[in-house]
Design goal:
alpha+beta, Uridine Diphospho-n-acetylenolpyruvylglucosamine Reductase, domain 3, Phenylalanyl-tRNA Synthetase, Chain B, domain 3, 2 domains, five-stranded antiparallel sheet, 9 helices, about 20% strand
């Protein structure tokens, strides 16, 4: 038909991952292994056979596990789900969430682990426990069922984790934060770093302070004596407040998350560190002004979060 193909100019833009794979990664692999194309094809065929069998098993057990299916809600039998091998459980959950999200499941390994933690939790009577997932999904477990729902944008604005138990955080120490993929840790900065940092604080030499105490989004330094001897960590609850750094008054944690453009799906998993009287760190966002480092600071406390090693 004498048709001339048109090429999308974005196909050569290295800002897109697909183009870096096509124009950089594949040529590099081919230079190291000229047979890489054939190898990838063979591996794809092996994976195709395995995936086809797994999908057939999902199809086989779907009627026994899925109790009800609606456009925005799918209800599962928890006991029936738990009788399946773990791999099959995850593939079934992937299909459930894909059906609620226009064919593309948003779940990553950390989300499967959180759902599995939810399934292991003891539920009695009329109790219900809810976890928030990406793409405005939420999963609720009651005594017998596991219910996945797709929330509207408005409903997803004010969501909280039900696994919000406050866990004591010893100093020094490390604890897993319930309902999140995070490990929280606390430790006193030791000499000679602490002495050098105190001297820099007394000079108000902040460049030197942060050289001695390198802070990141996931690591902060606060005044240990102002924080006090008792620390706990948990996820947020309705009404949580703190005084952001540099401010004279407290502010709602919810408002801080909105102002910092933290995605709604991430908010239920953010750890909050508390002293005996108030929040000292909204992890990854802001410390409380009342525990900031000053020229009079004597002991420096390092707080941090890191992904759980199983994730």
């Amino acid at each position: 038909h004498a048709l001339l193909p048109l090429e999308d100019t974005s196909n050569r833009d290295p800002r897109f991952l697909r183009n870096r794979v096509r124009h950089e990664l594949l040529p590099l692999l081919e230079s190291m292994n000229p047979g890489i194309h054939a190898t990838l094809l063979r591996n794809a065929e092996v994976a195709h056979v395995d995936v086809a069998w797994i999908e057939s098993q999902v199809e086989r057990y779907w009627p026994a596990v899925v109790l009800a299916e609606q456009e925005e809600r799918i209800t599962l039998d928890s006991a029936a789900l738990l009788t399946l091998p773990l791999s099959l459980q995850r593939h079934l959950l992937r299909r459930v969430t894909a059906r609620l999200c226009a064919g593309q499941s948003p779940l990553e390994l950390r989300h499967y682990l959180l759902i599995e933690e939810l399934l292991r939790r003891e539920i009695t009577g009329t109790e219900e426990v809810t976890l928030q997932l990406p793409a405005q999904l939420q999963v609720t477990r009651n005594f017998t069922n596991l219910v996945f729902e797709r929330l509207s944008s408005k409903e997803a604005e004010h969501i909280f984790s039900a696994l919000d138990e406050a866990i004591p955080l010893p100093v020094p120490g490390r604890v897993a934060v319930p309902g999140t993929p995070w490990i929280a840790s606390a430790e006193i900065v030791t000499e000679p770093v602490a002495r050098l940092a105190r001297q820099a604080l007394q000079r108000q030499d902040w460049l030197s302070v942060w050289q001695f105490l390198p802070k990141t989004r996931y690591t902060v330094y606060i005044d240990a004596d102002r924080a006090g001897p008792v620390l706990t960590v948990r996820t947020r609850r309705p009404g949580d407040r703190m005084r952001p750094l540099g401010m004279a008054r407290e502010k709602k944690v919810q408002d801080m998350l909105v102002n910092e453009h933290i995605p709604g799906a991430d908010r239920p998993y953010i750890p909050l560190f508390f002293s005996a009287s108030h929040c000292v760190w909204l992890a990854g966002v802001q410390i409380d002004d009342r525990v900031r480092l000053t020229a009079t600071t004597q002991r420096i406390l390092r707080l941090s979060i890191e992904p759980s090693s199983v994730i």
